Amino acid sequence: MGTIKTRVPTGLYAITDSKLTPPETLIELVEAAILGGAVMVQYREKSAPMAERLTQARNLQSACFVAGVPLLINDDASLAKRVGAAGVHLGQSDGSASEARRLLGDDAIIGITCHADLTLAKAAMEAGADYLAFGRFFKSSTKPEAPAATTDILAQAKCFNRPVTAIGGITTKNGEQLIQAGADLLAVVGGLFGDSPEATKQKAETFQRLFISHHPLFSTPDNRSSQK
Question: How many domains does the structure of the chain reveal?
Fold first, then answer.
């Protein structure tokens, strides 16, 4: 099975969570998010046994590959390599981008957490990151310990010429301001998952409409009509 990378997409970035997307509904919920418009998925599981993580990641990769949506693995480039995922997302203490690049190849998507620090963003860009992730922007139940960020950093980070991702407490009610401030991706966990597949799909559709309405990529009449 191949990997997918033409460019880092713009839109909803769905991130899994062991409580909000438990194993018995993981694939169904992720597929619902993709049907609603999610353009990228991240598998984030830190506590399950390796065999379980491998099975879940393989199943997710299959679902994402069929849908034509990149799957990234959180913090584990080796697991990404094993399942043929499109790339990896790295925190500040989760290995180097250069090592991940050597393992996964030039076509892999590598994202790096930059918190609210442009110095970290510059280092990530120089290390070869394909997108830069900032946050948390709002109170977050899944990452309560993350340092707070203000929306100003999204515009400031445009100088690095990399797609900018916002994360942390994002919902359909507050996502608009982040897109308007410069976010190219909204990385969403609790604001997307935790309900039924039908509700997940509806939330994903709402996020997609926010991007169509407020992101420059969709600003022309032709682009707006083609996305409806």
Answer: 1
